[in-house]
Amino acid sequence: MSLAVFAVFASLATISALVVVLHRNPVYSVMSLVVTLVSVAALFVLLGAPFLGALQILVYTGAILVLFLFVIMLLNVGREDTDSGGGGQRVVALIAAALFGGLIALLFWARYQGLRVPTLTPEAVALRPLARELLSTYLLPFEIVGVLLLAAVIAATVLAAKNPPSGGASSS
Amino acid sequence: MTVPVVWYLLLAAVLFTIGTFGALTRRNGIAIFLSIELMLNAANLAIVAFSRIALESGDLKSMLNGQILVLFVLAVAAAEAAVGLALFIAVYRDKRTIDINRLNLMRW
Q1: What are the residue boundaries of the structural domains of chain B, listed by start?
Q2: Which residues in chain A have Cβ-Cβ distances shorter than 8 Å to B83?
Q3: pLDDT tens digits, residue range A75-113?
Q4: Which residues of B touch A133 (CB under 8 A)?
Q5: Were A19 and a residue from A32, A55, A111, B51 both cysteine, which residue would form a disulfide, CB within 3.0 to 4.6 Å?
Q6: A3 and chain B: CB distance < 8 Å anywhere?
């Protein structure tokens, strides 16, 4: 059962990831990345992290990718206007990426190939221990991340503002 | 019949490879950014899979540590996306393009 679910979502994630990378129109890339991220969220749930799955859908597809869509439409970037550097660069990039990914996959395979994990218990996927840990042991990092997000919001507002309020005269 | 954990790790490696390829070949700045988000997400998948492995070998706490790490990575990714896209808007306002072949001011 879980094997079938894994097969469906893993192939969905791989195919849509390929579309993200290969499609020339960035709007289609973003839409395809939505499918990838939702599939990965389903795999999170399958791995016993339902909270992270929900968070992934909320934060990534709900916030970040909508932001991407907004910027793409705002800047009106259509298809890529210059060539992608010819076939040579593509081949070299493919070799480099495949070497790197193959090495990582080989390491994973060598270390964890025989490992089988039993099915999850209800205690393992309960939310309460996660919340307790996050708001006790990790309270300080949690607050720092909040400050980081605030700083990011301010930085984004300043960067994208039409006339930066840095006193640099009104030379638009 | 459960799924062997190594399959999740292999899928993460595949997604990361696809993202790397995209980041190396795309010419549109936003498409490169999308590829980087894909790589980040592949890393997250690997972390969650490792936390699942940790649950087997030890206590519940080591699994929670992994999940909380992913949570922080998500938050940082959100901040990074906001600032990065604002940077693209600023660059576009100056150069009227975000094609990285034309953004060669700092190339020697």
Answers
A1: 5-95
A2: 152, 155-156, 159
A3: 877 666 555 556 788 889 999 999 999 999 999 999 888
A4: 61, 64-65, 68
A5: A32
A6: yes
Is A60 touching B (CB cutoff 8 A)?
yes
Separation in Å, CA B8 to CA A6, A122, B18, B57: 9, 21, 15, 18
The secondary structure element, H or E, covering residue A63 is none
CA distance A48 to chain B (A): 7
Q: Please list, in sequence order, all residues whose beta carbon lies within 8 angstroms of the beta carbon of residue A29, skipping any fewer than 6 positions away.
A: A19, A20, A21, A23, B31, B34
Rounded Cα distance between A79 and A23, Å, is 9
| Burial label, A85 (beta-carbon count in 10 A; 0-12, 13-18, 19+) | middle
Q: Is A108 on the interface with B (CB under 8 A)?
A: yes
Mean pLDDT of B51-56: 84
C-alpha span between B45 and B32 (Å, rounded): 20
ipTM: 0.91
Q: Give pLDDT tens digits for A17-49.
A: 999 999 888 899 999 999 999 999 999 999 989
Q: Which fold has domain A1-78?
A: Four Helix Bundle (Hemerythrin (Met), subunit A) (1.20.120)
**Chain-chain contact of A21 with B86 (C-beta, under 8 angstroms):** no
Global confidence as pTM = 0.90
Contacts of A77 in chain B (CB under 8 A): 28, 30, 98
Check CB contact under 8 Å for A44 and B45.
yes
Residue written as tokens 């840095």?
Answer: A166
pLDDT in tens, A114-142: 777 777 777 778 889 899 999 999 999 99
CATH architecture of B5-95: Orthogonal Bundle (1.10)
